[in-house]
Design a protein that fits this description.
Layout (H helix, E strand, L loop, with lengths): L2 H6 L7 H4 L3 E7 L11 E7 L3 H13 L4 E4 L5 E3 L4 E7 L7 E4 L2 E5 L4 H10 L2 E2 L11 H6 L3 E2 L2 E2 L4 E7 L5 E5 L5 E2 L2 E2 L7 E8 L1 E2 L2 H18 L19 H7 L6 E2 L2 E3 L7 E3 L5 H19 L8 E3 L4 H4 L11
Parallel strand pairs: 2-5, 3-5, 4-20
Antiparallel strand pairs: 1-2, 6-7, 7-15, 8-16, 9-10, 11-12, 11-15, 13-14, 17-18, 18-19
Amino acid sequence: MTSATLERLKVDFRELTHLIQGKVLLNHAVAPYTTYHLGGPAAAFVEPHDVEDLSQLLHTLNCGQIPHLMLGGGSNVLFADEGYQGVVIRLGRGFSGIHIEGDKVRVKAGTKLVTVMNKAREAGLGGVEFFAGIPGTIGGAVVGNAGAKKAWIGPTVEELTIVTPRGEVKKLTKSEYQYSYRYSSLKLSGNVLVEVVLKLKKEPKDVIEQKVKDYFKTRRGKQPRVEKNAGSVFKNPEGNFAGRLTESLGLKGFKVGGAEVSKIHANFIVNTGRATSHDVAAVMRAIQQRVMAEYNIQLEPEILPLGDWNWDEIKDIWWNFEKNS
């Protein structure tokens, strides 16, 4: 971390217990909250009780220039072995819930994707069947415009509620939410999504059920199920597939330490049980270098680095990621 950041961290994180009603844990392990189960501890791990709690927390942290980051369902991220000398914020139980009225589905950001899919299916609403087999929460899915094949969550978004870095609660319309492949205007914006309204479509339940089964079947056969992973590691380059490029170079099963390119799908790097985050990063770099040398294609990471990484050591991997000082 920079000396300026270290200077800002002369703060007693115990004071957070007096600031919010939610959970505050000091020097707390973050790894169990990520799908990789990797990474060191956070100086403070906070779960706000509700939106008001989150608003107060963000306002205080930003005004005090105290480093903090949001952690959703823990997929699509690689948390640093070094941990994080700041505040990790995770939306707790107060941010989980769903209400359906007609074709509108109002969902709190911490709600698991499988819950949204099942509730929509019960209500005879189609459009989110591709959630089948995807870990994580609706908040992370909307921020990253999650999808599969040619289905994305972006087109279903009707309204959003966010908390700004200053702690202001704002409503956004669908016209204020821009999205593209694996990206949305909320990503890295500093705004925290707390609720979303999806507009789905009425469909026969048997049709929805079949789509769900098809997505489950596809993922069971083509994606690792047992080993811990963070989902697809690289975005698919235009007109090609990251997994296909990696596999063509004979890299299935390639390992560094305890991190291995999945033998099932080459765009997944799995934690065999003894990996470090640095092992995963080293495998990513090796794949990128080989693909660039053979095909002159620069693979763009889909997973994000979180925590106190030495940026100079990983900036060649995450060339698409703008590091905030």
